[in-house]
Design a protein that fits this description.
Elements (H helix, E strand, L loop, with lengths): L25 H15 L5 E4 L6 H11 L6 E4 L6 H12 L11 H17 L5 E4 L7 H17 L6 E6 L3 H6 L2 H4 L4 E2 L7 H14 L9 H11 L3 H17 L7 H11 L5
Parallel strand pairs: 1-4, 1-5, 2-3, 3-4
Length: about 270
């Protein structure tokens, strides 16, 4: 709606995880390096804790796109399923259409999982399982789905499986309750909100990629945007997008700190 007014080719602030718009903050860069090391060496599961909106899903999607050797990429977005349902969903994602229907019984399911993973390895593939919102996994799912998968990958030299769990910061303390599980974690790299400098750089990057040839936010607006958003990308995107809409409606030539603060009080009352 406002793109023509600001002379943009597209909306600069997306609410979806677009790899092309991915910004490498310090914590993101650290997480990417650790993920690459752990997965290249099949060192065990990786844990990415972070608050909502810090870009955990975007990070993993970007990683999967940049490192295509990790295939098939299985993105598990229903962590609240029972252990049995979750295990069967993983098996269904790893099977091919030519493979038999799912077996009956837990032992049979894991035997078929082992066979499916071995078939992928024989074909030169390295499956990557990504548990999104993993803090919602039940104790049963952690111990009866995640742990057996890790044990399977450790005990069978013919299996090349990588596992990533991303969720709220409470995820790590929950996993520490189970020694067998936490001792297998080889990489833990938390995602934080952007610093003030990173927030300004991120906004300018988004604007450039959208076709802007001039700053659309004042320096004070960028400082305010960082303060009210705590540097969390999702909040930055929401406020930045609406700021451009309001600026268009009010026929402004640039977005100032007062527009940012006004929108923050509406969208993020606890942060404003």
């Amino acid at each position: 709606m406002y793109e023509a007014y600001w002379k943009l080719q597209q909306r600069p602030f997306s609410q979806t995880a677009e790899p092309l718009l991915f910004y490498r903050s310090r914590s993101v860069q650290s997480a990417l390096l650790r993920l690459q090391y752990a997965i290249d060496n099949l060192n065990g599961p990786c844990v990415i804790p972070g608050l909502t909106g810090t870009g955990k899903s975007a990070l993993i999607r970007y990683f999967a796109a940049e490192y295509p050797r990790s295939r098939p990429f299985v993105h598990l977005v229903f962590p609240a399923l029972s252990a049995d349902e979750l295990t069967r969903m993983i098996l269904a994602e790893l099977q091919t259409e030519q493979e038999p229907a799912q077996p009956v019984g837990r032992d049979a399911v894991f035997r078929e999982l082992r066979s499916a993973l071995r078939r992928h390895a024989l074909q030169g593939r390295r499956p990557l399982l990504f548990f999104d919102d993993a803090h919602q996994l039940s104790d049963e799912a952690l111990m009866q789905t995640v742990l057996p998968l890790l044990t399977l990958a450790e005990s069978d030299a013919n299996i090349r499986l990588s596992v990533i769990l991303a969720g709220q910061p409470i995820l790590l303390p929950r996993m520490r309750r189970f020694g067998e599980l936490s001792e297998r974690v080889t990489v833990s790299s938390p995602l934080h909100g952007f610093t003030a400098v990173e927030t300004a750089d991120y906004v300018q990057q988004c604007l450039r990629q959208a076709g802007s040839d001039r700053p659309l936010f004042t320096d004070d607006a960028l400082v305010s945007l960082h303060d009210v958003s705590s540097g969390i990308p999702r909040r930055i995107n929401r406020i930045g997008d609406l700021a451009l809409l309001v600026g268009f409606a009010e026929q402004r030539s640039v977005i100032g700190a007062e527009q940012i603060e006004s929108l923050a009080s509406e969208l993020l009352p606890s942060a404003a």
